[in-house]
Write a sequence for this structure.
């Protein structure tokens, strides 16, 4: 079975550029999560969706970050404009319901120069 | 106080040793508990769920102590391949979930 699929796996771009990260959750999963992980701050929840609706976006750092889930099989996390401090690994995860374990994608390693 | 707290370690243990990690949580109205494993530069992966009666999977034992509000993970006969970061997850009533910051384990030959 396909797991959570994220793209791209790696992205290197210059500050000020728009970055779009993509995620396809496991089919049938109703909840989707975006995380950011750095050595300094660990794993941070940015936002999560239930049935395509954003439920908690309190972890989104600032207005430069936005996330959408137009349908049950696709979500994007966008950073515009990007800054060097946004460099991190961004994980997407999905689960059937929020009281079940989450399944993570391979992550996107983002470097902003 | 953080909702979920873990000792970050690092724990450095010799092969064959037994090692245990704890994860404390602040909200007694918690409903689900899990341990994840994360290898360097990889995604977190579910290691095991934690059941009220405790559960075992090979060399791994997970336990829940509701009275003292902590979960534990015990690894027996440590292998080099057990070296990783172990994260606990606690889901509180209302489906609020929290990841611990992780405990780093290195098994030394």
């Amino acid at each position: 079975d396909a797991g959570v699929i994220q793209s791209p796996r790696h992205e290197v771009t210059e500050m000020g550029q728009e970055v779009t990260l993509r995620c396809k959750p496991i089919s049938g999963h109703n909840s989707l999560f975006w995380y950011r992980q750095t050595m300094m701050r660990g794993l941070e929840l940015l936002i999560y969706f239930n049935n395509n609706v954003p439920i908690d976006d309190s972890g989104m750092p600032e207005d430069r970050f936005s996330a959408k889930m137009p349908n049950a099989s696709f979500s994007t996390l966008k950073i515009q404009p990007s800054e060097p401090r946004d460099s991190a690994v961004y994980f997407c995860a999905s689960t059937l319901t929020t009281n079940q374990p989450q399944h993570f994608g391979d992550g996107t390693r983002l470097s902003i120069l | 106080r953080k909702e979920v707290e873990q000792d970050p370690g690092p724990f450095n243990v010799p092969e064959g040793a037994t090692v245990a990690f704890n994860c404390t949580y602040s909200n007694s109205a918690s409903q689900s508990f899990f341990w994840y494993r994360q290898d360097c530069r990889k995604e977190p992966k579910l290691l095991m769920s934690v059941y009220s009666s405790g559960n075992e999977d090979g060399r791994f034992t997970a336990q829940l102590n509701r009275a003292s509000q902590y979960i534990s993970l015990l690894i027996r006969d440590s292998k080099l391949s057990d070296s990783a970061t172990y994260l606990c997850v606690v889901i509180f009533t209302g489906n609020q979930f929290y990841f611990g910051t992780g405990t780093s384990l290195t098994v030394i030959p």
Summary: The radius of gyration of chain A is 13 Å. Chain A touches chain B through 16 residues (CB under 8 Å). The mean pLDDT of chain A is 94.
